[in-house]
Design brief:
This protein has about 170 residues and is an all-alpha fold. Helix content is about 50%, strand content about 0%. InterPro entries: PPR_domain-containing.
Length: about 170
């Protein structure tokens, strides 16, 4: 019986401890105080830890598993999987429907001349020159450098912050 159970039973029963149990408890504490690594007289000798679980393999030996891997590799070289036999991606991109709605620009669109335009517009906005910023963006629509959605949104947000709702 473990020490915990003994103390639990003692608190439940509320009977005075029996001399045999008391003697056993005293012997246990004496033993633990003198030699904590010795056997617990109440619990008996410690049980050895269980051995690690044996791993079961699908093959009887490592050599057999290696041979199967080599066989599988050879088979894939000789006959490739079905998905690898499909026709590769078409060389020309599919023609785009002119009536389909355009997807918004990604942040990768802000490069080169478009990035320069965006930075000029941002600096005009920071200088509170919203008229020049919107004029620059409007005039760039007709040039080879078209403004991105980020540039247009920056102008719209700046006008909204300055309560210029009827312009734009």
């Amino acid at each position: 019986m473990s020490l915990f159970r003994l103390l639990l039973l003692r608190s439940i029963n509320r009977d005075p401890p029996k001399p045999a149990a008391s003697l056993l408890l005293t012997h246990f504490f004496h033993n633990v105080a003198l030699n904590p690594t010795s056997e617990n007289p109440i619990q008996g000798p410690p049980t050895p830890p269980p051995p690690p679980p044996q791993r079961s393999y699908a093959f009887t030996s490592a050599e057999e598993a290696a041979a199967e891997r080599r066989r599988r590799k050879r088979r894939l070289r000789i006959e490739p999987p079905i998905h690898a036999l499909r026709a590769s991606a078409p060389s020309a991109p599919p023609t785009r429907d002119p009536n389909a709605p355009r997807l918004p620009d990604s942040t990768s669109a802000l490069v080169g001349h478009r990035l320069n335009l965006h930075n000029r517009v941002q600096s005009l906005i920071r200088a509170s020159d919203l008229d020049a910023a919107s004029l620059l963006a409007r005039s760039s629509v007709f040039s080879s450098t078209r403004p991105t959605v980020f540039t247009c949104n920056a102008i719209i947000a700046a006008m909204y912050r300055n309560k210029r709702f009827n312009e734009g």
